[in-house]
Amino acid sequence: MGKRVLMAMSGGIDSSVAALLLLEQGYELIGVTFRTFDYIKESCIAREKGCCSVESIMEAKHFAESLGMKHHILDFRQTFKEHVIANFIDEYKNGRTPNPCVLCNSHIKWGLLLSAADEFQCEMIATGHYARIANRSGHYYLQKAVDQNKDQTYFLWMLTEENLKRTIFPLGNFTKEEVREMARERQFTHLAEKKESQEICFIPDNDYRAFLNEQGCVIHPGNYIDAEGRKIGQHSGYCNYTIGQRKGLGVAFGTPKYVTRINPIRNEVTLGDHDELYSVLLTAGQARLRDTSWLRANPLVEARIRHKSPAAPASLVIPKDFEESSSFQLQFETPAWGITPGQSVVLYKNELVAGGGIIE
After folding, report:
1. What is the DSSP code (8-state) at residue 311?
2. Which of 54, 198, 248, 337 lies at 20 to 30 Å from 73 by C-alpha?
3. Which tens digits make up the pLDDT trace of 195-229?
4. 52 an active-site residue?
5. Which of 51, 101, 104, 122 is the catalytic position?
């Protein structure tokens, strides 16, 4: 294992403590922080407090330099716009609910970061993600973190074995509270008490509808319909909704109603009852499976259809002509609620990530 590591730093507690741990283990670290997005309108400047803001970038730089590390700010804005933001907008235009963190990790935090590592002559890269890497018979697998509440493997399923071979996750064996305590023990109290954002980094106020509007995605009102296609009200534009949504519908029906389907072509949003959102089947595209022979021989997996959902038992159906980026099907043992097109489904076997795909 190489001793020079490119450390991705956001200015937050996780990447900062990860850097401290690696320095204590004798690694030579070069810190990097990404610039991925700029707010254009003045009304948005005050809201720029996400993990990639100017403030957080400078915090990361000052922290790295205080530890005697070299630090570089990498401008990934154009690539981020082309791969992450464009996909985010297109998915909502298509009536789907995207997960930009998955694409960012694959295309930005590993795709471009590994290129930067080569430039700075670093054999390995490291991040503050809560995940582990397992070596099984010479092959590298993504493994769930010890802290199941903080586990981030759901967002990392697109990483390849080549990515994992050059990656270190210093926090994978620790809980969040242990990480905070490590910051306190090292006299970085401000890090231990720092709040963490749960928002999408380029939408720090968590108002994706306003963001779509700012990016020129015009949203027009349309009809709510029931399962039989009858008009039952008017919505504010199909992009404003996601499968399973109950609050913010703007219309009272006497009993709770949920978004069960979105038709972008007709600008229609179908509403139904809670139980209409249960399903035992899903199809996922843009798929990556770690070992198709292994999975064909033993197709039982645990599948997670969103970050906060528990993994549920399911049977994997792989087409005979399967190849990377094609599709697979899942059949759940117990009906899953709120399967949402555009979100990732991630497959696990014994805490290892066996693959994943984008729900169709």
Report:
1. P
2. 198
3. 776 678 888 678 888 889 888 787 899 999 999 99
4. no
5. 104
